[in-house]
Structures are given as C-alpha cells and as structure tokens.
Amino acid sequence: MPHSLSAKKRVRQTLRRRQQNQAMKSRLRTVRRAILKALETRDLPAARERLRRYEQLLHRTAARGPLHRNTAARLIGRMKIRLAALEKSAASAT
What we know:
The structure is a single chain. 87% of the residues lie in helices and 0% in strands. It contains 3 helices and no strands. The longest helix is centred in the first third of the chain and has 36 residues, at 5-40. It is elongated, with a radius of gyration of 18 Å.
C-alpha cells in the first residue's frame, strides 16, 4: 500500500494507463477477428476496409505505447500477406 502522496498518485496513473492499454489492445483483437472472418468468407471489399482500419489502429496503438512499432509492422505485414493470397486466389478463380 503506498504511503506517500507521490506513490498514491503513481498508483492512480498506473491504473488509468493499464485500463487504457487494455482497451486499445481489446479493440485491436476485435478488429483482427473481423478481418479474419471476412477473409474466411472470402469477402474482399470488407476485408480490405477492415484491414485499413486495423492498420490505422495498430499505428496509433504503437505510437501511444502499448505495442512496439515493429510488432505493429509485423502484424500488418502478416494480414496483408493473407489478403494478397485471397486476392490472388480470387483472381485466378475468375
């Protein structure tokens, strides 16, 4: 239990930051699931739009701290590879 005023303030700040970080990461997971669902159902327009939103969220989350920028770049790259594979299979199917 913190005793000094500064220690009490640090506890409040840490709690607030942890909640914000958890909310940002939760939002990322939600959008990621939406992309995966669109890729599963082969819905290219929805997948493109959701990937654009996911990319924005990842950059913002990396800039604010809960995620390292290299992690964000890696996650974006992996999703773009999946989307490109789907686009390629859709193009060859038509």
